[in-house]
Protein: DUF6436 domain-containing protein
Organism: Atopomonas hussainii
Amino acid sequence: MRFITRLSARHWLTVAAIAVWLLAMLTAFLWFQQQFIRPFSDTSVNLAQLQLHAPKALSSPGAVRVVHFWQPGCPCNVANQAHLAELRVKYQGQNVQFYQVRQPGSQGQLPPPLDDLAALESTAQFAPPVSPAVGIWDSQGRLAYFGPYSEGMVCNAANSFIEPVVDRLLAGKSVSISNALAVGCFCRW
């Protein structure tokens, strides 16, 4: 008890500042978790049930197509965009094309080196429930995967759902996966 009474006003001020900082960090963390940590979708659907009407550029035969759905200002984009840039490097020179779909009515562009991705228009029938999201079409123009890049707060090659799908498609194997049950960092579309 003597120790507490011997602390100077300066020490009490330091302790109070640290306590306020810790409380602010906890509040910010809880707010972020409440705003952005959510399931990819409120329902589980398989690809046959998914009403995702793709533009002709995707639904016709060609390369394997990876479509990045995003919205400017979403704090969840950062890790996914870094991962997307890694995917472009990994699949460079292979039969894989990359596209982007920005949320309708939003302003902004992807950062380099993603700013040259071909843009597709979003419609009510061609939109995810949240973003960032990814759709992958096989070389026959069939939707092979639709869902998040990964589960959890950040996305990278270690926890990604994307590389296994693209690798199987490039190997000529069939894939049909909808991953709507993953929980991660998403912004409502």
Remarks:
- The domain at 56-188 is CATH 3.40.30.10 (Glutaredoxin).
- The radius of gyration is 21 Å.
